[in-house]
Structure formats: C-alpha cells, structure tokens
Design brief:
- The strands form five sheets. The protein has an eight-stranded mixed beta barrel with strand order 12-13-15-16-17-18-19-20, surrounded by four helices. The chain has a five-stranded mixed beta sheet with strand order 6-7-5-10-11, with helices on both faces.
- Helix 3 (about 45-70) crosses helix 4 (about 85-105).
- It has 26 helices and 21 strands.
- Helices cover about 60% and strands about 15% of the residues.
- It starts with 9 loop residues before the first helix and ends with a helix.
- The structure holds ligand C2E and calcium ion (2 copies).
C-alpha cells in the first residue's frame, strides 16, 4: 500500500495529524510538569511515585509524537512496528526523562541543576527519537547526518532549558496563576519535542528505504496509529485527572487544617476569640495607637452571681447564659474586639482613641444590656456584672493592661458589683509584690528552694500512722518560709503550676522510693490543682513517675478539692477513671465547701472524702458543724468511702470525730507537717511529737489487701 492512499481514519476526527502531534507533545509536557510539581527537595517514596508518573507522561508523549511523526512522513511504503523494540524505546524514554526530571525538578534545584537536568532531558529526548527510527527496522538503515543531529540536540537543549528554567522560577515565586505559567513552560517543552523530532527525522536520510517484512509479531502502522493516539491521549488525561484530584485533596486538607487552627483560637462555647488570640489583637491595637499617638480602652467584664446559676440550674443552662451574654457583648462592640477570658469573664477592646467618657458609656451600656433578663428553657435569669476599665497608655504598658483591668474589676466587685470602675495605681499595690514573687518562684524550682513536708494521717480506731499528705513549702532565700496558700495561687494564675506540679509528682515518687529502700512503706497523698487537671498528659506523667521510681501505684493518693472535682464533671470522671485504672487512689478534699451532687459523687471512683477544716474547727461549739460532720461521715459510709477529718487541733474534736466513726484524722494535735527526714526518724526511732506508733504493716512488704 502506498503512503498516499493509506486509510487515515483518525484524520476524520482531528483537523490534521500535525495538530494532534503538537497537542500530544504539549499535553504530555503539561502533565509531566504538573506531576513534577510535587517533587520536594528530598526524594522520598512519595517523591519517587510522582517522578515515575511525570516520566511516564513525558515518555508516552514523546513516543506517541514519534509514531505520529513517522505517520506524517510520506514514505513510499507502509511501516510496521516490532512490539518489543518499540516498547523498549518507550521504557528507555521513561528512564531518560526520569533522570533529567530528578535532577532539574526538585524544589531546591538552582540554575546549575536546572541546566544539567535540561541537558540530560534533551539528550534523552533526542536519543529516544534516534533509537525509535533505528527500531523501525528499515532496510537499508537510516543514514544519519551528524550536523543535523547536532542541530536537533541543540534545539532540544535550548527548549528544555528555557522550559525548565521558567518552570523552576514560577514554582518558587508565583503564588497565583501558576497553571498559566506552567502551561507556558509546557508549550516551550512541547515545541522542543516536536521541533527536535522533525530535525531528527530530517537527519535520518530516509529516502528509498524498505521495511523488512520477514519479521513476526508486527503491528501495522494503522493499528499502531490508533493505539498510540487513543492510548496515549487516555493515559495522559488519566494522569492529568489524577494530578488535579490530588491537588484538590491537598487543598481541602490545607483548608481543613486552617479551620482547625482557627478553631483552636476560639472559645468553643461562645465562639469568641480566646485570650491567646485576643492578646494578639490587643498588641496590634496598642501598636497602632502608638504610631498614631492615640490610645485605647480595655474593659474586663466579670459576671456577678454566675456561680449560683450554674450550680442551681445546672451547667447546661449556665452554658446557654454565657452564650447569650457573649452575643449581647458582641452586638455592643466592633467585630473581633470581644473575647472570652475564661469562666464568666469577657474582654472588650475599644481601639481608635476613645475618651474616658466613651469608655464609661460603653461600660454603662454593657451593664444595661446584661441586666435584661435571659429566658432560657422557660426560666428567666438575670445577671449583673462588674467591669474594670483601663485606658492605654495612661494606665500602664500593654503587658499589664489585662492585670490592671482585673484589679479594677475586683474593686468594682468589692464595692457591691453591678458597676464599673476605672483603674487606679493604688489598686495594685499588692500586685508588684506578686510579680516579684512570681519572678522568684520561677527561679525557686531550678535552685531547689521548694521542698515537700509530710503531715501524718492517723487511723482513728487504733491511733496508728497509716500515711501522710505531702504539702509544698518554699524556702525563700530572703523572705523565709512561704506558705503554699500564698505561692500556689500565683503559680496557678501565671501558668507556673504545671511545672510545679510536675516537680511534685516526681519528688513524691522519689521520696516514697527512698523511704521504701529504708524499710518504710509510706502511703502518700498529693494535692492536685485545677490547672493541673487540665494538662492532657497528667495521668501519663504520674504513670511515668511511678514507673521511673518503681513505686507501687497503690501507695499514691491524689487529693482534689470538691469544687474542682465538680467544676468539670465529665472531665473529672474521665480523669479519675484513668487514675483508678493506674491503681492510684482518689480523695475528695475540702469536702463540704463546694456543691456536690450525690448522683455525681456516686459515679466518681474516689475512695476517700476529707471533711473540710472549717467544720472540724467548730465541732465543739456549733451544733450545725456537728450535724454537717456527722452527715458527711454517714454519707461517705453509704457511698463506701473512707472519711478523713483534717485540721484536728483539740482533744475535744478528736473525741467527737471518733464517736462519729471517722476513719482517719489529721491535724496539729497529732503532728504538724514535717520534713521527710523527720518523718523517717520518727518512724524508725519512735521519737515523735506524740506517743503514736506507725502501723506495723508499713514496715513489711506491701500486701494488696492492706492497700485497700
Ligand atoms: P489542704 O490540702 O487543705 O492542706 C491542709 C492544710 O491544712 C495544710 O496547710 C496543713 O498544714 C494545714 N493543717 C493541717 N493540720 C492543721 C491543723 O490542725 N490546724 C490548722 N490550722 N491547719 C492545719 P498548708 O500546708 O499551708 O497548705 C495549704 C493549702 O495549699 C493546701 O490545703 C492545699 O490546698 C495547697 N497545697 C499545699 N501543697 C500543695 C501542692 O503540692 N500542690 C497543690 N496544688 N496545692 C498544695
Ligand atoms: Ca489536701
Ligand atoms: Ca483540705
């Protein structure tokens, strides 16, 4: 069949083979660059995947452009392809492209690598075009014109360099419209492929050649043509779709991550910004005020009487009240200028240089708006608020604004609430001392100024010592011994309680181990602060400390105050559950001062209640105190909890508590908190504050039954 009358079915569908040729080359180049976009500086497994895809795309394009190119030649005979060499060339093409792309298309590739990669790629392209012609099995073989080949190589190198350089530039610099630039690079690469292919064909000198027909396994030129055109277009489209799909997934993942990040800066209950994000807004507003020589006002709103609402109507109603209040505050201030500081506290920022009158006016409007009743679940509740106002820059540096607003708010509250108060310097005369203490406290941990004292717990029926409570002490180099009542709240307020608590956990475990090595198996209780409970890894930390010092978890008890335990009921139940699983006991401290629900108490895996000292104090003088103490003891018994009375100072209190059936006693009457060493000496030599003995089991191997 002569070339002139060959049926060309494909031509019925495409305008001309020439156009198809170009289109395929461009498409292949585009898909290749699209996939290569994902190559990072380091080629990991995923990177190899993308490299493979990119090379596959380019090789397929090269190869099919070649078949079409041959088809375009008006040879005086039909061409037949031998499958093995033909596919071999395709594989070779893939390998050459992979090499070039691997060098040039990494994210970190500089100009030098781009050029080396481009040369490799050009060499690969021309090499493939040459071997493709060789694989046709023409007789006589092609008579290569070397200058023509040289020109083809130069054209390919120029095109590849330009394309890859452009691509590398836009990939790093261009943020938007990247696809258009990528298309431009692909166009250059496509042109390089088609042009070099024509030049290679020209250099082959294919006049008057014959095709050997003696071979088996041959594909006709037409069959090959259809295969190539349909197959490669399908393959390339598939790769393109895959690449787009992946880009889409990646973008939506990115969006989801962004959303997540945004959420973590927002208070989940009210959807207002939280303190962290608000501090950023505040700093920015203050900076703007500085540059424009203006000022700003900050209002700290603290609700009066919110706790009773929470306690009497439940947390669900409390939450809805907070949401309602957040909405009202939002409607009174500019967008993003209201935040929830935590609990029932909110912050309002007035940027744009407000006057004190304007700030007072806003505070008055806040009070007015909050005092309107809230209808929730058919019930009407009303709250008032205390507001502290600071003006910047008059009332202090940015870093002190919230603290100063807090001081002013406390003033408003102490004058009866439902009012606002501007900051004055006298409100923070104690604050300076606090800041100094805070500074010293940071140092105290590192300098080893903290120490644990241990106060024995006495088994009421026998009078034996069965355990101790660890209480923190700070030996300040200048101020002497500082009470935890002073420094624990500071640590809590300024974010130090985490490290203090971590030290405590480790120190207690270490001490238990030291005593045990000395022959004393002491059970020790530690106090956990509400802020510690919020540490997500607290249980892990306790488990780790127990493990590191090889301490039996049954020797450790965690005391958590009743109000803390009731504050976040669900969270506490979960946390207690995890502790109980570890084998650590749980004690509810200061019992009687908070508001427990019986149903909830039942759910807690606690093993002990500690009657608050305030009830013990009045036992001898107040009938009410006696009623409370006896009720608590009965309640505990009905819940199968042990009862400890703390703060026992007199023989009278001791006697009453024993009569009521209290299990354990703790107080100055028996022993004050003492150093670990003093306690060990007392245990070993039996010389102590009172004639009391340590329970004999404390000196034996711990039996599980005795721990119960
Ligand atoms: P708490 O847990 O109620 O501890 C009992 C407090 O009562 C201790 O005061 C103890 O020394 C004192 N006390 C014991 N017996 C008597 C007595 O007969 N009469 C009187 N008047 N007081 C007695 P301390 O050591 O000053 O601790 C005060 C509070 O500080 C503790 O109250 C606890 O809430 C907190 N605290 C102490 N150490 C730590 C700690 O390591 N971590 C945490 N988060 N809080 C701690
Ligand atoms: Ca305690
Ligand atoms: Ca207590």
């Amino acid at each position: 069949m002569s070339g002139a009358d060959k049926p060309r079915m494909i031509e019925m569908f495409v305008p001309s083979l020439l156009a198809l040729d170009w289109m395929l080359a461009f498409l292949a180049a585009f898909v290749c660059l699209d996939l290569a976009k994902r190559l990072e500086s380091k080629l990991d497994r995923e990177g190899f995947g993308w490299l493979l895809g990119a090379s596959l795309a380019l090789a397929t394009g090269l190869w099919s452009a070649q078949v079409i190119g041959i088809d375009r030649l008006d040879l005086p005979y039909a061409i037949e392809y031998r499958p093995v060499p033909a596919f071999g060339v395709w594989l070779g093409a893939g390998a050459a492209c992979a090499l070039g792309l691997a060098v040039a298309c990494r994210r970190s590739a500089g100009l030098d690598r781009t050029l080396i990669g481009a040369l490799l790629l050009a060499g690969g392209i021309v090499g493939i075009q040459v071997s493709f012609v060789e694989a046709l099995g023409l007789q006589p073989g092609p008579a290569w014109l070397l200058p023509g080949l040289g020109i083809a190589l130069i054209a390919a190198a120029a095109g590849c360099s330009a394309a890859l350089w452009l691509y590398a530039e836009v990939r790093v610099r261009v943020k938007q419209g990247l696809l258009a630039w990528q298309a431009a690079a692909a166009l250059i690469l496509g042109i390089a492929i088609v042009v070099s292919q024509s030049l290679v064909m020209g250099a082959a000198g294919l006049n008057g050649v014959h095709v050997t027909t003696a071979m088996q396994d041959v594909l006709s030129e037409d069959a090959m043509g259809v295969l190539v055109k349909v197959g490669s277009a399908a393959l390339l489209s598939m790769l393109l779709v895959m690449s787009q799909l992946e880009a889409h997934l990646r973008a939506s993942l990115q969006r989801a991550k962004g959303e997540l990040r945004k959420q973590s800066f927002r208070d989940p209950l009210t959807e207002l910004p939280n303190r962290q994000i608000f501090e950023g807004t505040l700093a920015q507003a203050a900076h703007q005020a500085d540059t424009s020589q203006g000022g700003l006002a900050l209002l700290l709103v603290n609700l009066d009487g919110f706790k009773p609402i929470n306690e009497s109507l439940g947390h669900r109603v409390g939450d809805r009240v907070l949401r309602e209040i957040a909405a009202r505050l939002r409607s009174l201030a500019q967008a993003h200028m209201v935040a929830r500081l935590g609990g029932d506290e909110f912050l309002l920022l007035m940027p744009d240089n407000p006057t004190t009158e304007q700030a007072a006016d806003l505070a008055a409007r806040v009070l007015g708006s909050l005092s309107l009743p809230c209808r929730i679940e058919g019930r009407e509740t009303a709250v008032t608020a205390s507001i502290g106002i600071v003006m910047y820059p008059e009332h202090g540096a940015v870093s002190t604004l919230i603290a100063h607003a807090d001081a002013a708010m406390r003033f408003a509250k102490s004058s009866g609430g439902a009012t606002y108060c501007f900051f004055e310097a006298r409100m923070v005369s104690g604050l300076r001392e606090q800041t100094e203490l805070l500074r010293d406290l940071r140092r105290a941990l590192a300098q080893g100024e903290l120490e644990l004292f241990y106060q024995p717990k006495i088994h009421a029926p026998t009078g034996e010592i069965t355990g101790a409570e660890a209480l923190m002490r700070w030996q300040h180099p200048r101020l002497g011994m500082i009470s935890p009542v002073v420094f624990i709240p500071i640590a809590e307020r300024f974010g130090l309680i985490g490290s203090l608590g971590n030290w405590l956990i480790d120190e207690v475990c270490r001490q238990i181990r030291v005593w045990r090595d000395g022959g004393l198996r002491m059970r020790v209780a530690i106090n956990l602060s509400v802020h510690q409970l919020r540490q997500p890894d607290l249980v892990e930390r306790i488990a780790r400390a127990l493990g590191e010092h090889d301490v039996n978890p049954g020797l450790l008890t965690c005391e958590i105050t009743e109000s803390v335990a009731m504050e976040d009921a669900e969270g506490t139940i979960r946390f207690f559950g995890q502790l109980a699983q570890l084998g650590v006991s749980i004690s509810i401290d200061d019992f009687g001062t908070g508001h427990s629900s019986l149903a909830y108490l039942r759910k807690l895996p606690a093993s002990e209640l500690k009657i608050d000292r305030s009830f013990v104090l009045d036992l001898e003088t107040s009938e009410d105190a006696r009623k409370v103490a006896s009720a608590v003891i009965n309640l505990a018994k009905s819940l199968d909890l042990k009862v400890v009375a703390e703060g026992v100072e007199t023989e009278g209190q001791n006697r009453i508590l024993r009569e009521f059936g209290c299990d354990q006693l703790q107080g100055y009457l028996f022993a004050k908190p003492m150093s670990a060493k003093a306690l060990a000496l007392w245990a070993m030599d039996d010389v102590g504050p009172r004639s009391m003995t340590f329970r004999s089991s404390l000196f034996k191997e711990t039996q599980p039954a005795e721990l119960a």
